[in-house]
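Dear colleague,

Thank you for sharing your sequence with our group. We've completed the structure prediction you requested, and as agreed, I am returning the results in plain text so they can be pasted directly into your records. Please verify that the sequence below matches your submission; if there's any discrepancy, let me know and we will rerun it promptly.
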Amino acid sequence: MQGTVATFEQDKGGSVLLDDGSTLIFGADAFAASGLRLLRLGQRVRIELGPEGVVRRLTLPTLP
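Please find the predicted structure tokens below.
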């Protein structure tokens, strides 16, 4: 699934606005697992959910 970064703080996490208009919250651990150094507001991201429905990792749609 993909969305757009709505809020972000590196040490706290943030939220993503999904394409269906809903908001999904992610924690700092999901950002840390991404390997990214920074997220910008409005940036498109791919969201990987764990089996329990919690955001596990964020990646850029252009990266494999």
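Summary note from our side: Strands lie at 2-9, 13-18, 23-27, 44-49, 55-59.

Kind regards,
the structure core
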